[in-house]
């Protein structure tokens, strides 16, 4: 009996001792000093790029290792699904790679936990190489510093089905440019098709509120403000679309993939996408491809939305000089340009968008999309606040859904969404 | 004195059994006990993914009581148990009775009924989304016969019912196998005696088969109720990451996933929800087993 108690106590200590160590270090941060010899082994993590760009990255790494003898880069690639969770696990477990492919919303919590290197301190000499807006894209409200090198930029055109436009009596050569035009086209199309053809398949996201001209956050970045009159007006208009079936009935649970499929089958007349989608249309829906219309994103501000990718350096890295040098190498003008020629993305380096590759059309749809996107990127805005987390996106989506279903007014819905997002923002610390 | 103490310990705690058990104990400790205790500890902290927590007592549990989404999750998980367990106790038994017979080609049917069990839940989810989508096969058939389309995946309640149907469909084969094993142990003489006494098929089923497999039914009830309360995949795949329209189809485990993961995840709060899920599943098991004991006595 005495022994079993002892054994139990020993087992309990063995189990409970590690518990006292649970939780990550967070907050401490590492030194910002990245000076010294570029050498040693580092790990570089990309976001779902190995499948399509393996030769490009292998060449890039070989080039870097040749330029800096004594360095070795281990490349790991993570699937798109659950990427944030993988980074969370690594960050919490202290196994975050030295150089990590991130988006601004992923950088924010890592920077707050002291895991992202402040490049304004560690590598300020590189700032001038990038577009000012792109460099600023990895700044965090409430913090000083820049926490990732800007990598590629992206923006997408809006595709529309010319046949459906014609059938609804709309001019297929004059697609809607502003939200007001979009709403009136949507209502007309729903009326003409007896509710069978919707114009849109997604509920408004934070980017829609931004493109509509809504002030998303206060200037200090301490509270959200998308429940202003403009925000309420936008949501009320979406409610009108939903009631008229100009917004697909399944929009409340739609994902980008499901709405893309609806567009392919002709159930929805307009869908956002990228130049990559043209190939899919050609392959999966040749009849749609013949009637595809390509236009700029709908915006009432004159500025389209821009997605920014970055390359972050782990502040806890034991090989900071090599990590900073490699992160810069991946994102410098020459390498961004060569990557852009392999895939429909756009460099964030100063002057790159003036390259004839982004300014001259050759008559093909692909070039037309590329040139138009590159042009719009010069004034594009990243409308997603860097502090807007996944939980906040769901909170907004759920409140928007309640408003569309008529369970609460647009004003109540947005007030609740802002309240919830502010609460989550406070909890982020 | 000391030596005799050690030898007494050696006598009472022989080494070799512990050495044999060590690999299992280590695995259980690392992957079962440690996460369990860690969750329990985290539930009383405000820990976040990247920020170690402070002890906050019962604050997470108090917050749960005021969280509408928690009550939505609790409601949906409970409804799931009520909607899924009765068909999963009864239908696989009937299916097992059907495929129990040794007739030519029956192996094909046994395998066919078991196929959904081994199919990946993601594949199953995708197939059912294609079937139940607004423009899916079922709605196309309905339209062909002149009926209106049904919003299986856009209506809050229909979506939950659809997810329940997927769970039942996927679970039938698994529980059928359990029942097949139990039916194999029912003495044939009992059926023959009942038949001699003039009992028909239904009566024989009620008076011979059901009592003979009653403990298996209890086991199936207990297993399926715990699984149903912890449902995640079916609802997630059909309702999407936001949990259906306005999140109204969110279940408790979906809420744990949504709240506790990601770089800004609230690990402490999600752990508190997980503790509630644990307590409810234990209570469910106890209730089922108690009902069984009462029935036996």
Automatic annotation (TrEMBL), chain A:
Q: Which domain of life is it from?
A: Bacteria
What Pfam families has UniProt attached to this entry? SBP_bac_1 (PF01547)
Coiled-coil segments, which residues?
A: none
- CDD domains tied to this protein: PBP2_TMBP_like
InterPro entries per record: Bact_solute-bd_prot1 (IPR050490), SBP (IPR006059)
Sorted keywords for this record are: Cell membrane, Lipoprotein, Membrane, Palmitate, Signal
Signal peptide start-end: 1-23
Q: Which PANTHER family match?
A: ARABINOSE-BINDING PROTEIN-RELATED (PTHR43649), POLYGALACTURONAN_RHAMNOGALACTURONAN-BINDING PROTEIN YTCQ (PTHR43649:SF33)
Q: What is this protein called?
A: Sugar ABC transporter substrate-binding protein
UniProtKB/TrEMBL annotation, chain B:
Membrane-spanning intervals of the chain: 18-37, 79-99, 111-131, 157-182, 212-232, 267-289
The answer to whether keyword Transmembrane applies is yes
Q: Per its UniProt entry, which superkingdom is the organism in?
A: Bacteria
Q: Where in the cell is it found?
A: Cell membrane
Task: Tell me where the signal peptide lies.
Answer: none
Principal location listed in the UniProt entry: membrane
Residues of the ABC transmembrane type-1 domain = 74-288
Pfam families per the UniProt record, alphabetical: BPD_transp_1
Could you tell me the membrane topology recorded for this protein?
Multi-pass membrane protein
- List UniProt keywords, sorted A-Z: Cell membrane, Membrane, Transmembrane, Transmembrane helix, Transport
Please state which protein family the record places this protein in: Belongs to the binding-protein-dependent transport system permease family.
Name of the protein in question? Sugar ABC transporter permease
Q: Native species of this protein?
A: Streptomyces koelreuteriae
